[in-house]
Structure formats: C-alpha cells, structure tokens
Amino acid sequence: LLLANYNSKARVNINQGGTSSGKTYAILEVIILRLIQKKRLASVIGQDIPNLKRGALRDLIERVIPDNPWILKYVKRYNIGERIFYFKNGSILEFISFDDEQDAKNGKRDIAFFNEANGIEYGIYNQVAMRTSEYVYIDYNPTARFWVHDKLIGGKNTVVFYSNYTH
Fold first, then answer.
1. Nearest alpha carbon to residue 46 among 116, 110, 94
2. Residue 167 — pLDDT band, cuts 50, 70, 90?
C-alpha cells in the first residue's frame, strides 16, 4: 500500500480495506515522505478529534514513528495540544476535524487525508478537496456504501486501492 499510494499519479487516492489492512499506516508514511521532500502543509481530517486521537494520531505516535525512527530526525517539534507536527524544513502535519461544510472552507493545504471517510460528510470533503493543491488520500472500512462510491470512484484522476488484513 505504501508503494501503491506513493507511486500513484492520481490526485485522489482511495483506500478501501478492512480493519488492520494497513491503510492508515501506509498513507501516513506517504504523507511524511512527501513532507520531508518539500515544504508542504498536510491535514489529516477525521469526523472528530476523539476519533483522530484514537485512530490516525495514535497510529502515527505509537506505530509509524516507532517503526521508522528515522522520521524523528526530520521533526522539529510536536504540539500535543494542537495536534501539529512541525518539520525542520518548514512542513506541517496537522490533525483536524470540521463541524460542518462552512467550517471546512477555512484554510488551504497541499495534502489532505480523510481518515475513516465514511464518518465525514461529503460537503466537508468537497470544501477541503477544493482547497487542496496536490494530493487527496481517503481511507475507510467497507461497511456500507457512502459518498465515495457515489461521487468519487470511477471519477477522473482517481484511483482505488483495495486491501485486507494480509497487507
């Protein structure tokens, strides 16, 4: 999944897979690699802050960084209260959520990652995606059909990666 997402030329990269299939882990690694290569702003978006703390942020702190200790030599500091990683080259990785579509109209970024996207409203996705200049990553467990299936899959400049527990 790391190589598939990293080598993808698509703007929108959808990752559908079951629990423990490596989706979030791989996407976080890809984002970190992109942040190290060039000064960028990346946002990891969740349905709310508690979900991010129990999910993507925990994965980064407890799994991705310990498995890849070389990452720390590129991190300048981490603001735990704001959930922001500052990199030595000026890149920023933030973990955020939006209350509604209007709230999502604030800010621009180079990379957006919608973690567990089936818990995020399409209006929020749309506003953030419009304000994202380079890459959009999406992950979710395939428990039910939602806006990704109806509005994104099969679209222009979009790719889907499927994974399961073996990944």
1. 116
2. low
